[in-house]
From TrEMBL:
Residues 57-185 form the Caspase family p20 domain. SUPFAM superfamilies: Caspase-like. Residues 211-304 form the Caspase family p10 domain. This is Caspase. Pfam families: Peptidase_C14. It comes from Aedes albopictus (Asian tiger mosquito). Signal peptide: none annotated. SMART domains: CASc.
């Protein structure tokens, strides 16, 4: 009887709880103050099916290319300049102007972070559709990335791009592409046999109207990793598997106006998955698969900028 009574009380108040052992007030010892009511302008409506890509600029591209490192245990990243060259030539197909693609080579962590913070004062971003950030470097487990002088946490770095830190990009897609190892594991691959599977599918429908609304702070992010969690990423004198296949897909795409970023990434995954390493020792005849996680809230396609 007591169990059912508890459920009835819960239903009456209809409040949401979190899966944490302690509440935030218990952890801090104080009750946090209510955040001041502030809203940020965004070009896409709450229930729009796709992100607005009609700005006067497609956006900015930041490429952090780490070639050499102060720590001698990290080898020079041969071939990474081929990735940069390819990106510089291919990204204009997505509507980016070459003048808006900036390469930062061998920057320290403080310099990388300073570049991210300074975006808050970039007036061009107010008219931009999206923002792309590429980080080409060595990496370790726990999504730690190497700057020229030290390592840093990817997810801490992403905090520079939330609406409260970067007002001009509120509600707009911010895309991060990370070419780096994520650990020491190697993908040996498995053997598969093709069979036919059939399944039904459906789709949800929602109403559409415009309003001021509360939006998650970490929404509208797409983080693409060159390998699966804990695994290594391959690169040679021609560039990295991940960046080269990503560029291959963009170059071969017939209609970028109707091709979503998920379609591009799925094709990239397929391209990388078909490669096999040619190396010495344990790294020979190994595989790689990129992965990504998304908090995008709408479909994202790259049509031509008018």
């Amino acid at each position: 009887m007591g169990v059912f009574a508890s459920r009835r009380r819960r239903a009456r108040f209809n409040t949401d709880s979190v899966d944490a052992t302690r509440t935030f007030s218990q952890m801090s010892g104080t009750i946090s103050k209510k955040r001041e009511s502030v809203y940020f302008d965004t070009p896409s409506g709450r229930n729009d099916k796709a992100y607005s890509m009609n700005g006067t600029k497609r956006g900015k591209v930041l490429i952090f290319n780490q070639v050499s490192f102060e720590d001698p245990s990290y080898e020079e990243r041969d071939g990474t300049h081929q990735d940069v060259k390819r990106l510089f030539n291919v990204l204009p197909r997505l509507g980016f102007s070459k003048e808006d693609i900036t390469v930062y080579e061998d920057y320290s962590y403080s310099e990388i972070n300073r570049i991210a913070v300074k975006l808050e004062y970039d007036e061009d971003l107010k008219q931009a559709d999206c923002l792309m950030v590429f980080i080409l470097t060595h990496g370790e487990e726990g999504d730690r990335l190497m700057a020229q002088d030290d390592s840093y946490n990817l997810h801490k770095f992403l905090e520079n791009f939330t609406p409260t830190s970067l007002n001009s990009m509120a509600g707009k897609p911010k895309l991060f592409f990370i070419q780096a190892c994520r650990g020491r594991k190697l993908d040996r691959g498995v053997l598969l046999r093709t069979t036919l599977i059939q399944a039904d599918c459906g789709r949800d429908m929602v109403d559409s109207h415009s309003e001021v609304y509360i939006h998650p702070e970490f929404a509208d992010l797409l983080v693409v990793m060159s390998s699966h969690h804990g695994h290594q990423s391959f690169r040679n004198e021609s560039g990295s598997w991940f960046i080269q296949e990503f560029c291959n897909v963009i170059e071969s795409c017939e209609s970028l106006k109707t091709t979503s970023i998920y379609d591009i990434l799925t094709e990239t995954n397929n391209g990388v998955s078909q490669r096999i390493s040619n190396s010495d020792g344990d790294r020979n005849k190994k595989k790689q698969i990129p992965s990504f996680y998304s908090t995008l809230t709408k479909k994202l396609c790259f049509g031509p900028v008018n």
